[in-house]
Amino acid sequence: MVRVEFNVNNMEKNMLETETRIKETEQKMEETRTELMGTKDTVLNTLNEINEKLNLLEQKRESDLTGKDVVAFHAHKIADKSVTVNQVFVFTEVLLNEGSGYASTNGYFTAPVSGIYFFNCHLCVQNKKDLQYIFVVNGKTHASGLFTSNGTGRYTSFSVTVRMRSGERAWVTIDDSGSSSVDLLYEDSDDWNYFSGFLVRQIT
């Protein structure tokens, strides 16, 4: 009888201890869950902050690049059809000038950004006149050619691709060898003299 009572007491004691351990475990689990929820919230807040900063950086980058990576111009109507040696051809009517690189007052194109540029020029030469054209970037010749108008063809065009730094200038002029300066060029509503160019790729 005494043994049975002892066993019952032990069982009750063990059950109380087990119940206590279960409650402690449940409490620790709840604490862990609370910590995990807090960690989750912290991680989510951190990710949101990172996304916001990335968005701000992207907006700033787009703002900084707006207009700078688009450079193109097209101008026609020659200011002076009788040009002298090394005189810059000035095209006064501007049809396109994205990036504001071309100046119709002096005929110079000034690179607003560093990069690879493509240029094209079309000239209408008077019959039986010679034209020695030159394309110049900051004083250095990048293209040159001699055209003679013999009555069968009075138009010449040339293209050139160059690398320019921001602030460098490009222009079209004539050389003294083989150029007839008096009434050298002509144009009308159908035949245009023009100068155009655009940024192929911006580089540093």
Detailed description of the structure:
With 204 residues, this protein is an alpha+beta fold. Helices cover 31% and strands 34% of the residues. It has 1 helix and 9 strands. The protein has one helix at residues 2-65, and strands spanning 72-78, 91-98, 109-110, 115-124, 130-137, 140-148, 155-164, 169-174, 194-202. Strands 2-1-9-4-7 form a 5-stranded antiparallel sheet, with no helix packed on it. The longest helix has 64 residues, at 2-65. The protein is rod-shaped.
Summarize the structure.
This protein is of the alpha+beta class and 204 residues long. Helices cover 31% and strands 34% of the residues. It has one helix and nine strands, in the order H-E-E-E-E-E-E-E-E-E.
Strand content: 25-35%
| Class inferred from helices and paired strands | alpha+beta
Quick check: average pLDDT? Answer: 84
Describe the main β-sheet briefly. Answer: 5 strands, antiparallel
Order of strands in the sheet with most strands: 2-1-9-4-7
The shape, in one word, is rod-shaped
Give the N-terminus to C-terminus distance in angstroms. 98 Å
- The stretches of 5 or more residues where confidence is low (pLDDT under 50) are none
Helices and strands, in order, run as HEEEEEEEEE
How many beta-strand runs? Answer: 9
Helix content: 25-40%
Kindly provide the radius of gyration, computed on alpha-carbon positions and rounded to a whole number of angstroms.
40 Å
DSSP summary: helix tally: 1
